[in-house]
């Protein structure tokens, strides 16, 4: 397991996720009196409601939305990250200081399962030596902190920002802080269900499938 | 500074100000003077002019004249159309010298309106102050007059109190009873207990510090050092400005506090009126509104929980499945290879390269094969990843359950909103509810403004800390200041000592002032009564040992304000406008108290106040009736 107790440094974020982080870190005061730039408000935005704290401020740590976004992107895309070490650049970046070793471990193991799904078990390969080489290379990459921060996380954040139709998960996450007394795809409860559904699908398709 | 006990006012002459023209010629030293002045003849004007003259120096006096609740008020005669010249002359003595103060104001009063439809009022051309000492032996002019009077007599610091009237008494009562206004009262006490000479000392020390910096700068040839000293001086100036801004913001916060407090009171009163209403529909409406509010809070709470526990969304029991996959990979691929790095190394490093298992010398092909094997060995990290068991804590987050709960609450919310809309209110009820809603919106707005204000305050505080650190660093690094380090340190220590001394004096003075006020109250109201002045609770009247903002009733509290005024003034004479007011049965006692405690009481009273107040201070035949002569100079 990687030692992630050190400063994570700058992580690349899409604009929507960056806004979420900004809301979490800065919006403890009503926005109309704040000097900070406001994120885009939904059309039926109610100033009175917004005077209260945004739900987004409730995330425990600043890094938590990033973890959620990364996992969601992995679940939804079911793609392996690029093998190229070149750091992926997104719209914005933000510095983080956190220990995410537990979730790094989860992500690494999910990616391991995904790799096995794509490449099969060793006895299915034509050359065990080649298989071993590729697998060891892949695992080495997973365990490289720089690759994890510069490639894996931004890759899946980008995936989380893709939308098959309508608005993306991250777009709706950003707007979820303003939700009033209605329940729709921008509500926190809806996003939690969406995450759970994507997670369940990934586990069934990738993990459970490998066992059967 | 001269002892205030020897001050004696001999003459106050008003010519033209606010259309008033009269002269108050005081009785000789150690006698009290009573001037009988009917309503609207200039009593308040006289008091306010004295305060204006002593509080504000010439260059700051424009627009500072107050009259009762008009702040600011006009000081010129609003019945005169032409240019006018108004004069007030105040003659007094300190037992050693005779002083004659004059303030001349030249200007016009305009009834024209500005772009906001407000009457323009005073158009002042000039204000001129003159102070003659001993009939011209020494003369001061302009701002020097105020500087002289305040450094010698501190009139400016206590003019609000040695010139006392009902309006000031009510203001003191309000400040002492209102937590939001307490700071004004304590500010007054603070000013009273702080000698202006200490501020002078502090300025002189700051001046000395700057001279030391300049002297150090002139001695160094190194440009960098010179620039550093300049930077240091600039940082210190900026620090002073930031601290002053911070102080202002703290005061502004108190204004917000007061406004919020007042608004909350209004809303409470309004809610009480609404609750007390006999209207059944309003009661129904309030019950439903409360219920709707609670439902909204419930939803908010659940959503907050969802995000607070976001990492529990990763709620999966997959450890065993993943470990099974890893096991299968290891077993079917015999992965990872047993750790054979040492064996391979020793095979290759032997001279000649030799298989350490069978002992045969490696051919070039065998050697290449062994070298390829080396590349296929898993690193320690990979080895650990593949062999260790994966474990994840299972959490129980049921997103469907949360969603269902919220949906149910929303349904109930919708039903209640429908019910609310069906309730018919009378016009009066609607008006009350609308007023309450508006006030609540106003309150939310104020609270959000205050929060933003507090953010600014925090930023300023952080900036002050930063600047102080920067200054300390600059001082440390600046070798050019080394020579004068001891002087500079002594200056800092002295400034700190002055601040600490001020604070100690202030605290001690509050205790003494509290005692003085209490004794005054007891002497007027009787043994059952006392007073207390503390930083925590402000000014309280006590009856039978119970201190509160309500004890003693209106008359008792008015007496308390007189005693407070006496404690705040720094000179013996007291000039009082219309004293009796609501003092009730304590009039005689108050009059006797004033007579006993002052060598000079100057009373401006109504004719009706002669029998039960003024006669305690002077025989009727010695009282002077004053008629105002309309028309200015």
Folded structure, characterized:
The complex is a heterodimer of chains A (212) and B (633). With 212 residues, chain A is mainly alpha-helical. Helix content of chain A is 52%, strand content 5%. In chain A, strands 1-2 form a two-stranded antiparallel sheet. Chain A is globular, with a radius of gyration of 19 Å. Chain A starts with 8 loop residues before the first strand and ends with a helix. The model of chain A is unreliable at 1-5 and 27-51 (pLDDT under 50). Chain B is an alpha/beta fold. Chain B contains 17 helices and 14 strands. In chain B, strands 2-1-4-5-6-7 form a six-stranded antiparallel sheet, covered by helices on one side. In chain B, strands 8-12-13-3-14 form a five-stranded parallel sheet, sandwiched between helices. In chain B, helix 4 (166-177) packs across helix 16, helix 8 (280-308) runs antiparallel to helix 13 and helix 15 runs antiparallel to helix 16 (553-568). The longest helix of chain B has 54 residues, at 223-276. At the A-B interface, helix 3, helix 4, helix 5 and helix 8 of A face helix 8, helix 9, helix 12, helix 13 and helix 14 of B.
Low-confidence stretches of chain A: 1-5, 27-51
Strand order of the largest sheet of chain B: 2-1-4-5-6-7
Oligomer: heterodimer
Proportion of strand residues of chain A: under 5%
Protein structure class of chain A: mainly alpha
Mean pLDDT of chain B: 84
Quick one: biggest sheet of chain A?
Answer: 2 strands, antiparallel
Strand order of the largest sheet of chain A: 1-2
Unreliable segments of chain B (pLDDT under 50, ≥5 consecutive)?
none
Question: How large, in whole angstroms, is the Cα Rg of chain A?
Answer: 19 Å
Largest sheet, strands/sense/barrel of chain B: 6 strands, antiparallel
Features:
heterodimer, A: 212 residues, mainly alpha, two-stranded antiparallel sheet, 8 helices, 2 strands, disordered N terminus, B: 633 residues, alpha/beta, six-stranded antiparallel beta sheet, five-stranded parallel beta sheet, 17 helices, elongated
